[in-house]
Amino acid sequence: MFRLGDFQFPDAAARLYPDTPERPWVLEVGFGDGRFWPHYARALPQAPNYLGVEISGTSLLKAHRRLKDAGLTNAVLTKLPADVLVREVIPHAGLDLIVVNFPDPWPKAGHTDHRLLRAPFFQLAASRLNPGGAVLLTTDHDEYFAFACEEARASGVMTVDTGAPPPPAALETKYALKWRDLGLGVNHARFTPTTHPPVPHGTTHPYPEDDHAVPHAILTLPDRFDPSEFSKFTKRSEPGRGPDWTVILLDLYGSLRRDGWVALAHVVEGELTQEVLVGITNREDGSTLVRLARFGGPIITPGVKAAVGAVTDWLETQGATVTHRGY
Ligand SMILES: C[S@@+](CC[C@H](N)C(=O)[O-])C[C@H]1O[C@@H](n2cnc3c(N)ncnc32)[C@H](O)[C@@H]1O
Fold first, then answer.
1. What is the pLDDT of residues 119-164, one digit of tens each?
2. In the CATH scheme, what is the code of domain 4-193?
3. What keywords sit in the KW lines (predicted)?
């Protein structure tokens, strides 16, 4: 199981699957409880390299157990929104197949923006699939199916083939069985890129090259520093907003182990949301260090740096003198 911070941006099959780098590379989006891959891999002489992406933590654990029981070792699972993973982690022309089985249909009017299979995703997929690669969609939902086919055509980078049957493994997933029990049919499409335009990584989440440069600041607190002012400040202040991020300072906790406090901040950047801790630690030389805490493995993005900046700015409003800003 990989967290976003365990990947490189972009990553490479040779690094993720060091024992089987030459095998085809398949990405499954929204694998649910993970039934598709064991069925799919079992039907082949050699299991392709597998990358599964999900937003549900419970699904991640269920699928992890299933893949382990099936002895599928060249498999990486991660809990992320699919488009973040595809844009940031997958190298240009890296994948052989993207599989999407029974995606959430977002059926209500006005909710189609939440659907994954829209033109921008097809453009991204075309850039990350290698020549001969394809996106396979299997769904029970007629309206989403028609929508996805239309979006693929509108993307200008995909041909749409609705004539072939789905892979048998796609009919063995939890949702496939649910629809089969209800006597309902499924739709299947194969979307094949006509071009492989390079879509840059980090278009909305530019990760710094050196992610070990932990954002921090050094300052001197005033003699009469009152941490309880924090709650008054957060009640009356607006979230901090930058070009691609929003930062909300949520709370401040006293540290039992150290002389200092820890601020909790909520950082939103596109589809990526992180809750981060920013430590405020008094040091022996009389200065105070404000620094992103490693807890939870935060990804150091511009928004996370801004969270360290927001805590520093608040301390400045309380009379602190900032001597160094490293964010
Ligand atoms: C209807 S379920 C289908 C699960 C599985 N493919 C199956 O056929 O049983 C849709 C799955 O997609 C996941 N999902 C929804 N949006 C996602 C996204 N942006 N990235 C990754 N997974 C997502 C949901 O958590 C859910 O498990």
1. 999 999 999 999 999 999 999 999 999 999 999 999 999 999 999 9
2. 3.40.50.150
3. Methyltransferase, S-adenosyl-L-methionine, Transferase, tRNA processing
Task: From the candidates 6, 69, 104, 313, give the one annotated as an active-site residue.
Answer: 104
121: helix, strand or coil: helix
Question: Which atom of ligand 1 lies closest to the CA of 116?
Answer: 19
Q: How many CA atoms lie within 13 A of 237 on its CB side?
A: 19
Would you say the CB of residue 104 lies under 6 angstroms from ligand 1? yes
Comparing 249 with 300, which gets the higher pLDDT?
249
In the chain the first and final C-alpha atoms are separated, in Å, by 30
Ligand 1 centre from 77 Cα, in Å?
13
Report whether residue 55 contacts ligand 1, using a CB cutoff of 6 Å.
yes
Per-residue HEC secondary structure of 42-82 comes to HCCCCCCEEEEEECCHHHHHHHHHHHHHCCCCCEEEEECCH
245 membership: H or E segment, kind and range: none
The pick from 2, 4, 27, 29 for probing ligand 1's pocket by mutation, whose C-beta has the most ligand atoms within 8 angstroms, reads 29
Q: Active site includes 104?
A: yes
Domain boundaries, the chain: 4-193, 216-326
pLDDT at 185: 87
